[in-house]
Records
---
Amino acid sequence: MDYTDRETLVDLRRTLHRVPEPAWCEFQTTARVVEACEDIGVDELHVGPDVVDSDARMAVPDDETLAEWIERAREAGVDESLLEQMAGGHTGAVAVLERGEGPTVGLRVDIDALHITESDEADHHPAGEGFRSEHEGCMHACGHDGHATIGVGVLAAVADSDFQGTLKVVFQPAEERVGGGKAVAESGHLDDIDYLYAVHLGLDHPTGEVVAGVGGFLAVSHLLAEFEGAGAHAGAHPEQGRNAVQAMATAVQNLYAIPRHDDGATRVNAGRAGGGTATNIIPEDAFVEGEVRGETTELMEYMKEKADRVVRSAAEMHECTVETHTEGEAPSAESDEALAAAFAAVADDHAGVDTVLDHDALGGSEDATYLMQRVQNTGGLACYVCVGTDHPGGHHTPTFDVDEDSLDIGVDALTDAIRGVAADRP
Amino acid sequence: MDYTDRETLVDLRRTLHRVPEPAWCEFQTTARVVEACEDIGVDELHVGPDVVDSDARMAVPDDETLAEWIERAREAGVDESLLEQMAGGHTGAVAVLERGEGPTVGLRVDIDALHITESDEADHHPAGEGFRSEHEGCMHACGHDGHATIGVGVLAAVADSDFQGTLKVVFQPAEERVGGGKAVAESGHLDDIDYLYAVHLGLDHPTGEVVAGVGGFLAVSHLLAEFEGAGAHAGAHPEQGRNAVQAMATAVQNLYAIPRHDDGATRVNAGRAGGGTATNIIPEDAFVEGEVRGETTELMEYMKEKADRVVRSAAEMHECTVETHTEGEAPSAESDEALAAAFAAVADDHAGVDTVLDHDALGGSEDATYLMQRVQNTGGLACYVCVGTDHPGGHHTPTFDVDEDSLDIGVDALTDAIRGVAADRP
Amino acid sequence: MDYTDRETLVDLRRTLHRVPEPAWCEFQTTARVVEACEDIGVDELHVGPDVVDSDARMAVPDDETLAEWIERAREAGVDESLLEQMAGGHTGAVAVLERGEGPTVGLRVDIDALHITESDEADHHPAGEGFRSEHEGCMHACGHDGHATIGVGVLAAVADSDFQGTLKVVFQPAEERVGGGKAVAESGHLDDIDYLYAVHLGLDHPTGEVVAGVGGFLAVSHLLAEFEGAGAHAGAHPEQGRNAVQAMATAVQNLYAIPRHDDGATRVNAGRAGGGTATNIIPEDAFVEGEVRGETTELMEYMKEKADRVVRSAAEMHECTVETHTEGEAPSAESDEALAAAFAAVADDHAGVDTVLDHDALGGSEDATYLMQRVQNTGGLACYVCVGTDHPGGHHTPTFDVDEDSLDIGVDALTDAIRGVAADRP
Amino acid sequence: MDYTDRETLVDLRRTLHRVPEPAWCEFQTTARVVEACEDIGVDELHVGPDVVDSDARMAVPDDETLAEWIERAREAGVDESLLEQMAGGHTGAVAVLERGEGPTVGLRVDIDALHITESDEADHHPAGEGFRSEHEGCMHACGHDGHATIGVGVLAAVADSDFQGTLKVVFQPAEERVGGGKAVAESGHLDDIDYLYAVHLGLDHPTGEVVAGVGGFLAVSHLLAEFEGAGAHAGAHPEQGRNAVQAMATAVQNLYAIPRHDDGATRVNAGRAGGGTATNIIPEDAFVEGEVRGETTELMEYMKEKADRVVRSAAEMHECTVETHTEGEAPSAESDEALAAAFAAVADDHAGVDTVLDHDALGGSEDATYLMQRVQNTGGLACYVCVGTDHPGGHHTPTFDVDEDSLDIGVDALTDAIRGVAADRP
């Protein structure tokens, strides 16, 4: 197949859209990407545990969940030996193209989907065109099907070009849970990268608009606190309980009350909380699953430390024990101007692009920041670009969709930028 | 079948034990009880909406749940016309025996089961003997299979005796949720009852011990509060949320802090609480499901009013709406001494009984109190008796079981007591 | 002066009423009592540190407060050497009368006043008659002026009687703060007492009614928790504060939410709380002053342990330190029936008594319980009696007053009871 | 006296330093300023109610406090007719100089002091030099003695110059409580001002450094919430109380938990909180005194609305009533660049100035913003300048002091700037 062809790319995107898979369960997705890379003919192709620092993965689902998604992939015909390589949730891939002397350029795309049920209304394009999610309750509602497609498209286009140097395309799992970035950053694959681009579609920018340097990522940490107390009959022996729901409620109240910080914006959310078993039983178990954020990594760390203290003290107050886990994490980051400028220059020349913004702040979080930071810390430059796309519904909603015209723009502009920085070493 | 026969009763109890059904879903159980009543030959048999004041039912499950249990009963061969009568969760039965002039005596037994998974250990008698629950996750863990059996046994034994008067045996649904008592009490069936007995097995009394007059029921009310706020992205727009989990946490903290009362014991428990959808979304929905109790009905009402205020104010504080429902309720009650004495006298004569306690306090709640109160308010007497039974596990635990020898004791003692009060009009 | 004379006793009571003094500041009161004891001619008279176990005193005011009240006593002409003995708040006295062979009988009366401003309305008897408090803001609003007078009256009357044995009258300081009982109990003076009476006027019983055996004392513990955090400018550097008011608020919320107990009634109250310095400073200091109670001493201890945990965890949650002090404490207690019966018998014979109640429950707290417990633990009997008195205003209100007729009843009945138990050894 | 003379100004500053007076109690201060204005010979001098919109004053102390400070001023010899004009806390003054055709230029200085006890250490300059505060517990710890002096100095210097136009110097009371700005803004005196300067000494800038345009004022609102419930005996009848301390604690917990806002920084502080009367009484009264702030006035309003909701709901939850008052308030503001530039230009020429900063953010709050906003809204320009001064202790601390050399700099630079803008109309 010719992945420099627009129709092929649209087909690929729709194929991926049909089989959305959540964090660390991207078995079919990875298989399809691997197939494309082999078609294109890369020089190295990393899959399985070699893609990441396995221990640095966060938010890996339990064995039962992994088994379900593996079984689904098996039924869909994924090759058994590839499934074996990906055992334990080792999804994702790193494809390497070696084209002689020149710098090493990286492109990071993410590939996971969300636990959202896709709209089945006829005017929702994937539903109307017949490529709606076949995994009910799971959906590509953030465009990662498009990102993976762009990754493949760039790989094919660069392979087909006068590019001199090395290209690494990273197909990263588990971005939605901010669970994969750290593991990729610590894999070693980035340590020789001179220039890294990461790309996102949409973000409320229309088709034809691109942002050359996205910044303002909020550092984020997801935390899970599980309280364990002791049940007791609420009528007969209330004093024998150690009330985990009281601990949870005390924690929630005080989490939101962590002091604001003069150095910049902070956030906290007890996004999910719950506990207890029956009306007449003093609650024995409870949990809070939440997140803290900061305009800088330091501010996130400040919030995280406070949150940890709140949770521990709330447990102690109600004689419960508590276990806390970091479920996902990402630092803040900024795009390097030189790399953004290189992208802006080539994007501006593209027929489909009518507006180029030099900079925009994300105002959210994303674990590409781990990769960007890694490259920046080892002497390289990193840049996060946004390729606008008309999206009818907002990101993370059941009617989200991407305008497939933006795939071309993304592939072309990134390919040109990669060729450019390889040649000009900004 | 001869329901005055011990073996028949044990068989009946085991049959019922195999098919435990939760509140208002006792379709097979009711069918089996109806079959027995018809076998015995009662003069009136009420089933369907006629059993209760339909609108006074509490804790009725949603249509989907009802449909599942009806389907299960249909597959088990329950007669379609009976299922139609019970549509909408109208389970339970009232059987009437008319035996000439004499007072009207009532016996109330409850028939529902619990959402508990029964032990499958070999030394758990029902598992070892092959009559473990066939409805995985549902279990007769409080002896209501035995209560229903005793109801049938007493009906058969009284029918077979010199009893003069009218006997009404009430097979009440939904006691575990304190959801059925009020609906039965307001059905009209009790309004001509002169003497009412209610019976419970076990309660930590061994086989051979009976309690003639149980009292000290805590009045109870189950409440469900559902908060609705508005979601928002926790990183990008925390100010746009109206946080239902904050409302829930504020409610939980303040529910437990309702002032103690000088008139007697009170209780409060937020037994289940939860809310939210994702770590990065300001929680839009949350709930508290709990209970309040009082040593008297007035004390329970005091707690209920305070709890309602707490829940409403917590919602208002966080700009949420809240809907509150009473999911179940029961007043406090005391057994009439004259009726207890009548039972004590005959129980003491029974060969299997070695200890008769005149009085004991339950320390828990039970909606037989609605029936007792109704009878007492219309000029009758009411008494709650306990028939001890060796139970290896505690009530409401996976290893609960009853000693089947206690079924005989219950049937015999109650039959004699009913005959006695009909003759002597205490 | 003849303290067996009614007029003399009324004068004494009015003298004491004029100079109310709070806990451990009863310098003038003690001086006046000492003068009376010397007049009567006791065999031993303990004053100063010898009255109590000095270290076991609770709620002793700070040096400045002590100095103010000492100065006031000095100006009123109290003997300098007596003031020296009482230095550091060693008020109170133990008077001993030795009258040959016979049991040792004790009488405990309390002598301190309250921080209440006495009514100056003409129809408030002390105001109308000119013996209203001369210590503005301090008042005998609980009848301890009468109690001290009864102590003196009994001492004189027993001295003047055929009593055989030893009489110890304990004039106890600091009852209102439950701060003096423990220190007296541990002084050693009680260890040889065979029979102990304690007496209280009023308690909503009218003149002519007495209660022979008061019980139902709630065990109580007063706690003071002082939080210390760190201030910071609330606008410029909120993150630099460690917020003591947040710690206090978290503590208050969770104190009231300590679980109820199946063994009986408990109480908790954060009666005073506060903190902070200015609207724009993160609060650096805060406190909670409160109490816990229990129907039994064990229940009070349960509450105290929970309260301590709440306070410590609340401090930890907000990175504050906390110091907690027990400001006062008293166990629960019951009167011995034999001793109550002895009192009831003689009281019933008294012309001024028309009703004798065998028993009544206090429903409050009082640290005579420490003394009662001490005597009971060392093999003696103890009994708390109430001598009714018409009191226009409630206890602890600005219009409280005692009917001086009840002083006679108290002196006579107690004298007869003491003579009786010495003779009959019940 | 010649107020263009440096020694005279230093004397004036020291005189004012000796008699610090809090918000709306600046009776001696105003009298001294009035004397100076009369000496200089102004064309109009407004004192008393004419200075402000009387009803728009915030944080006016109670009559008793006003009376104390008036009495103190009377004893210090302040003229009785002036005191009468200032009755009810109508302090401050507006002095007007008319010098022919030209724009109207305003200068705002604030004159109140703080409730801080001034250091008496010899190395604290005012203590060492003998002009330490004579009003123990009150102190000019924020340099307003210097501000008032600069106001007088500029008035004298402009009067003595070639200035063409009208100059209004506003001596504003009650800045420390953000209580006076609004009342001055709504007085009408500002409505014809074309150019307004406000000035502050120090702010961590050393002598020789000036900031031409201060901005970044946080909008602020001080709130006082007073809860009233019902007392009850905590042992005997806890259920009869309506607990104001519980309401307060619930409010505090939820105030700090008001959601952060995406539009910018917000702040909240429950700076003072308290309540209750005695350990054994359910608390009947409580209060929270605090503040909210926002990077913009809208953000402050957002916080204020939320805070109000929290306080009302907390009261309702515990069946208390609550009264809330706004005790002080100020919007955010920015300095106009043109006016800042005019000041920067002349300041740069001054021999004593070595550094001129165009802009700095205050990061705190100040009610000059009301005046700035008023002038800006009526078509004028406004600018807040900072004149650096070496200050040994921080603002609002007992060792704060100003370097008197900075008085000259302030007077000279402001005089030149005022002359400049009058001539050049930027």
---
Amino acid sequence: MSAWSERKLIEKISKGSKGKQPGVLLSIGDDCCELATGSSSLISTDTLVESVHFDLTFHPPYSLGRKSIAVNLSDIAAMGGVPRFVLLSLCLPEDLKQEWINQWLEGAFSMLGEFDCSLVGGDTVKGRQLVLGITVLGEALPCGAVYRSGASEGDTIWVSGILGAAGAGLALLNHEKKHSGSVDFSSYRSLCAAHLDPTPQVFLGQELARSGYVTAMQDISDGLATDLAHLCRASGVRAEIESDAFPMTRETSAAADFLGVEVEDLLLRAGEDYQLVFTVQAGAEKKFIAFMEQQKQQLTRVGIITAGNGVFLQKQSGTTEISFQGYEH
Amino acid sequence: MSAWSERKLIEKISKGSKGKQPGVLLSIGDDCCELATGSSSLISTDTLVESVHFDLTFHPPYSLGRKSIAVNLSDIAAMGGVPRFVLLSLCLPEDLKQEWINQWLEGAFSMLGEFDCSLVGGDTVKGRQLVLGITVLGEALPCGAVYRSGASEGDTIWVSGILGAAGAGLALLNHEKKHSGSVDFSSYRSLCAAHLDPTPQVFLGQELARSGYVTAMQDISDGLATDLAHLCRASGVRAEIESDAFPMTRETSAAADFLGVEVEDLLLRAGEDYQLVFTVQAGAEKKFIAFMEQQKQQLTRVGIITAGNGVFLQKQSGTTEISFQGYEH
């Protein structure tokens, strides 16, 4: 006997997928679901594994449910697309509590609701390890999806939001796990939230696509050093970024000091920021800034695209290659 | 260090997804892939877990790769749809051999090739247990998808192919695992193949949809007793099926004798046949048979839809309810 009931779980999932579901022609309960799709669809799948991608000892199920959906929506955000439909594939250990699953689902539904996404399918199986597989289906805006491959020499490189917060939050949570009572979390609230409950930049991604000036884009999941390297490889270009330009908060540098780690590692290599890195067409910077003026999210120019390949970090001490130095899941 | 390399794996997946890929606007290598979709899309996801859904001691990786895709294509077949795109979510233990993964992928690609499906995305993560998650995206024929919910009183109930072969094959393989050398596999080749390497009834499902006489359909994955019960519940009807009518082969009854199990359990409850169960519009039986004449696959009428609910088995000894007596994954 398992601690959770598959029937109850499927009922909860089915209930959560009822009601206002634009574009869902046939919902959960048949061999497939049937969806009204546009002429082009964006699709992505991402899997979170217990003790690899999340730590059950400090990740509350509600925020993990939100994050499980968020990291997938972030892939749609990175194309400037509109997320529409989500499928769950849950592999759950027998001893997992029904209450844990209920809270995870509530979190997942709350994130789906924030972005008007419909849960349209799912599969639940028993396994020895908790594995959360999510597939998201979306559509590009009429202006088209933004690929990784469009950056050219002279384009400027930008990031949204701040870097390093999620990495600092995770490091603090891990530190507290090892040395109970050592971390004063009241000083690091936003860092922990950045790890536990990140916000996918869906609306910002769409606005960037709409601007018409963004030539390439991707989300920052494995750290800027790795994610920008992907963009450079896809575009066949080189990125030169400046260490002084990185957007961060005092909380992050305080956390780095407290933990005794390099702040640069948090900013460039820790990953999971779920912000966007993108390039703006050479010469279009002013028009781009004017277009984005209404946008509340912080946008920071961090470098420039040049001929060549790889990602290079410019510091006062010199220039070093940092391609693919991010976190590998 | 794991026994397999994620880079190699991703390279293999990317390579296998290259070439002629109709409808793929952007393939693997960006945050999402972009697909040309019709106005309506069918989508389904299915997860296979080691030691729950398959046994690595006797399931060769090549046929498991084929089967992993096949069971998902079967969901599209059950709607009378055309499978088009597949995404993989592979959770692989560190000690899994690269060669095992290579053969699994080869099997998966061979099944995808048989049905002109494109692999368009994937995610590979490390985990303690082998978990194979597959998502398939397809489209309905212009005549529309066939749902589970369309059966009415007076419709006749049909199944494709033969029943019980996969269940018998699995029971034989399990018997041999416990009592090495006890099973003469030369007598049971087709039964073992039915378990290890089932064929999804994609083309038959389309032909049945095209006929215009099929009112409800689903695939037989959990056994006729359970799958027909799903169809009845969705349609709000009762099914009466006749024990004497079930299509089977002598191999299956011989296996049942050898194993000391009830042949009825294999036919109705063992599951994994991946055949189709469907209902034909009341009064349209002759026209349906005429339409399907060109079709080579065996089709057998096994009962009739009446008012009420549940699935009832008629035997010489009387009538008993068998709803949801199938295998629960």
